[in-house]
Amino acid sequence: MNRQCNVDGCTRQARPQRRLCQAHRARIRRYGDPHFTQWGTADPHDVELIVTEQRPVEGLTRLERVLVARGLTARHVPAAEVARIVGVDKRTVERWRSRDRQKQAA
Fold this sequence. Notes:
By secondary structure, the chain is mainly alpha-helical. Helices cover about 55% and strands about 0% of the residues. Helix 2 packs across helix 3, helix 3 runs antiparallel to helix 4 and helix 4 crosses helix 5. This is Helix-turn-helix domain-containing protein.
């Protein structure tokens, strides 16, 4: 008997003899929250504080990392320093900057 996943709003089929679909089962195992998404939330106050103080912070979501990198780029901070503050590789910062420039040109 196939039935829907028990997570609100999910339209996927639950695995056989289970209550959750595979995607939500993996999210719960990894993050503990079936609705967790690394892109979903960003605290603008925290982002602005990090950009202003230019100090490394752990535990940022992917969205917050990108927003901090954009803010630091606007302040003409070198890519290596942005990478140190955000906690990613220098190449990642360069890729984000390139993608932002491409979007602005379009």
